[in-house]
Amino acid sequence: MAGTKVALTGIQPSGTAHIGNYLGMIRPALELARSYDAYYFLADEHALTTVRDPKGLLDYTYEMAATLIALGLDPKNVVMYRQSDVPATFELAWILSCVTPKGLLNRAHAYKAAVDENEAAGRTPDDGISMGLYNYPVLMAADILVVDGNVVPVGSDQRQHVEMARDIAEAFNRTYGDVLVLPEPLIQESVATIAGLDGRKMSKSYGNLIPIFASPEEQRKLIMRIVTDSRPPEEPKDPDSDNLFRIYEHFAPRDRVDAMSARYLKGGVGYGEVKEELAEILRDVFAGPRARFEELMADQAQLDKVLAEGAQRAAKVAGATLGRVKKAVGLTS
Ligand code: TRP
């Protein structure tokens, strides 16, 4: 699509994809693919900052690729690739690090949080902090800038990283001329986070998640564990403050959401009934994708082929950007 803006986003293959990832990143990504020239990549090198299990990293990478395709990302329409298959990104990351003020990285939320935690525990500030964690924002800037990304759809927790990518591109352009495209974050607040089983944000680190492709029986069991208050069925309830309803409303069709909301307010619906309904809805929503996911996971050669094709397409754009950059800085003539 010539002249179309480029949207790019990365997802770390650092765990099994859950319905919070689906609502926060995957579903919006599917929609964006319709109006942008879209690049979706598996950020396996970023995952290396936390994953220390080689087999796990590989498995999660395939799983995430299969998940995206099963849910409807069409690798013919979208450029889907694995970060480590596009090495131009790393060359660019080094060049960018040479124009990135160290102070900028000192202000990164993830780094600051790690330092604060060390200080609170009486350890030295940088205890256990790798250069990978520290340089994370520079690699992320390279991911974005190497494909001339215009917009970066991410959750609100990633806003600072995208803003840093823009700052780094500006720093580069100030020194070397107008070479890099300035990216912007695209934050969809309405779907940014979803509560997990215990009411905290659904996240791997809290162990409170519902995997997208767990079996319907397993999903039902997890749903039964969603924490609610202890109001009996006949009592009126507030849908907006109920975790269960807040998951339900993202998956049920509009008319059922409205009807359920009315029943909450009026009284007469028990949480058990809502849970059963949610389990059924999830079973139906993911039935087709689950079959496709299982098919893909059983055929690694096909996934390898899809990833190789994606890498080839991404490498073409990345190579052109890197060429421009190397010329601008004096690494090539
Ligand atoms: N840091 C992002 C996350 O954890 C993943 C990511 C890596 C990314 N590189 C990116 C997202 C480039 C958008 C663009 O969610």
Task: Describe it.
By secondary structure, the chain is mostly helical. The protein is built from 13 helices and 5 strands. It has helices spanning 19-32, 44-47, 54-70, 88-97, 102-106, 109-120, 131-146, 159-176, 216-224, 243-251, 254-266, 271-297, 300-329; strands at residues 6-11, 37-42, 79-82, 151-154, 184-187. The strands form 2 sheets. A 3-stranded parallel sheet has the order 1-2-3. Strands 4-5 form a two-stranded parallel sheet. Strand 4, helix 8 (159-176) and strand 5 (184-187) form a beta-alpha-beta unit. Helix 4 (88-97) packs parallel to helix 13 (300-329), helix 7 crosses helix 8 and helix 9 (216-224) packs antiparallel against helix 12. The two termini are 31 Å apart. The mean pLDDT is 95. The site of tryptophan (TRP) has 13 residues, from strand 1, helix 7 and strand 4.
Spell out the key features of this protein:
single chain; 333 residues; mainly alpha; two-stranded parallel ribbon; binds tryptophan
